[in-house]
Amino acid sequence: MKRVLKWLGVLAVVGFAMMLMIKIPALGLSEAAFCGKCHVMEEQVLTYQHSPHASVANCGDCHDPHGLVTGSAFAAFVGTRDVYRVVTNTAPAEIRTKGLSKNVLQANCLRCHSNLLCEVKDTRENNGSYCFHCHQEIVHNKK
User: Fold this and answer.
1) Distance between CA atoms of 118 and 3, rounded to whole angstroms?
2) What is residue 104's three-state secondary structure?
3) 23 lies in some domain
4) What pTM was estimated for this model as a whole?
5) What CA–CA distance (Å, rounded) separates 47 from 22?
6) Where would you find the membrane-spanning parts of this chain (predicted)?
7) Contacts 24+ apart (CB under 8 A), 45-54
8) In this structure, what CATH number is given to the domain that contains residue 18?
């Protein structure tokens, strides 16, 4: 029994370390070149590459939480889900932001643009909407 627990512990540590590797910039797992390898992301990568954000932010800067552990866990979950959808041919025809991803995007808008939003604060307050509801065309403009 001790041996099994030891190996489970080792696997947990290795798995956790691999999950954290997602956030290592040198691996490029948050870059458009990596995200664009999947054919369902071609339009998103193309529109991003022609946006003002392309020179200052990568995909992970907007779409992942910025904490090392929270960002790694989120990216690992979303990436695994996306690979599953591609392999099983269940990827949606139109990719839309849902659930927790909306909150991650909003937090990252506020983090990067806090100097512009010092008066406005969080646009969701007082029954407001997410930043990207009004500004969705800035990064991923529709063709």
Assistant:
1) 55
2) helix
3) yes
4) 0.78
5) 24
6) none
7) 47/139, 47/140, 47/141, 47/143, 48/139, 48/140, 50/141, 51/138, 51/139, 51/140, 51/141, 52/138, 52/139, 53/138, 53/139
8) 1.10.3820.10
Cβ burial 56-72 (10 Å sphere, 16+ → b, else e): ebbbbebbbbeeeeebb
Coil, helix or strand at residue 136: coil
* Residue-wise pLDDT tens digits, 34-82: 888 887 888 889 999 989 999 999 999 999 998 888 888 898 888 888 8
pLDDT digits (tens, 9 = 90+) for 78-109: 888 888 998 899 988 888 888 889 999 999 99
Comparing 90 with 140, the larger pLDDT belongs to 90
- Number of structural domains (the chain) is 1
- Domain-located, residue 140: no
* Both tokens assigned to 43: 């339009």
Residue 142 lies in a domain: no
